[in-house]
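Structure ticket #2291
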Amino acid sequence: MTHEHEHDHNHEEEQYITLVNEDGDEELFEILFTFDSEEFEKSYVLCYPVGDGEDEEEVIVHAYAYTPAEDGSIGELMPVTTDEEWDIIEEVYNTFTLDDEE
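Resolution: structure written out below.
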């Protein structure tokens, strides 16, 4: 049984992830959404630092590729390395933000 979806706007199980920044400090990020790309055979998560959403004009969204863990949660995060992947992420993000504005 395969579950395939373009966007998961209501990702109830995990709404937050903790990332370690360049200084070695942990930061809490809120998950904006996740999606799968059949073209790259990867899953992606878009998130932003908790607290940044309060100032609507200055939100910096981070994007990572990830391999889902066996329990379906977000597993190990990997950097996005190709322009082609960034193009897909940007396209999905733009669609997501347009959907939110309606």
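Closing remark: Residues 1-12 have pLDDT under 50 and may be disordered.
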